[in-house]
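[09:14] KT: can someone run the structure on this one? pasting the chain below
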Amino acid sequence: MTPLLLRLSLCALLTLTPWGAAVATARPTPVQAIRADLLIDSIGVNTHLDYGDSAYGRYMQIVRPSLKYLGVRHIRDGLADDQFLLRSYRDLRRHGIGVTGLVPYQVGSMPGLIRSIRGQRDVLEAVEGPNETDLFTQFSYRGQKFPQGTRAFMKEFYAAVKRDPLLAGLPVLQTTLAFPGAAAGNTDRAGLLGDLSAFADLGNSHNYFSFGEPPSQVIRDEHLPLNTRITPGKPMVSTEGGYQMGLGDGYRGSWNDNLEAPFSEDIHGRYLLRYVLEQYRLGYRRSFLYELLDSDEAQWGLFRADGTPRPAATGIRNLVGILNEARWDASGRRWVSPEFTPGRLEYALGRRPETLHSLLFQKSGGTFYLLLWNDVLNWNIGAGKPVYTRPVPLELRLGPGAWRIWTFLPLQSAAPTAVFRSRRVQLSVPDQPLIVEIGSE
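[09:31] RB: done, structure tokens below
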């Protein structure tokens, strides 16, 4: 399995220019590829296995089949507090799914917490500080709440994990903030919390979108700069993020006041697949989608409450199926992927809008995968209606050689949509990921 702390090479990113500008490349030039499996290993999903009165209460009937359908390797959920939850985690681990464990709001004692983590070390890939302590009043530590209690907890927790021989190699994720900035009348909570980089291995953020915005601009301009102030210099993960499709989420009057109309499932799928790619493009080591199943009327799930997949779930499954190169070694309890050094692909993209983004990956057999998407607005929040943009015509030019090109739209199918045998092809890039598989003849 690729370690969570592995530094990812992002050499294949497009250089960003001011919004709305067009980009053109004169002739094919070599571009460094990234191992395809690193993208797949970056995808996780939130679960709530202790929500027994929701769809999560049907573990064997809905939860495990849904996770196996997706093909993801990571979930984020609370640390196990009973044997039923721990048995479920251990069952998932046997199928190659590890847990990032969230620390509870109330900790009786630090030694007791460490003992609990030791008892479930076999299923844990990482541990995370308490969730959004600036919002939830259930949190306190040594009689203190946010921010003093949060700082005190993370300092003691990190030290306790790192001095325990069994846990020392377990990554510690920073606590998160619901409102890190000073917008909408909030105080600058990241500023109140201060620099906690000495007390975590990775920074953390919750990347939501209250006005139906496309992922890239909000992540780049808000989530990243606000949350990296808490752990400057540390790599980032995002343990929650996504778009809701219902209205009732229990938090009306806070961040989603203006989400007066729910997303359609189609737009949810387009945004969520682009969200996975934008997070990776912008440097996040792992992104946990919120969430696996609908657990209430807010409808955040990749799956409906009856376990049927939404377009986003089908898209993730197909993305994983096309790019995955790892296999689960049950005896060694690890994912194994071929060791190789990715090469370079000589190519050029024609004139295009700045909203058209790309990533270049490669598998061990030599085949390249160029992922393209147009990260544009897809939702008119005032009208409560979807916004569809015409696909962008784009010329792909390859360097010398005989090339076979297949294209895929994972939101639609795992089957190819077109096949070319040429060094120059005309593509249409939509507001959903287009996978261009490029191999030698």
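[09:33] KT: thanks! The chain has a mean pLDDT of 90.
[09:34] RB: yep, looked fine to me
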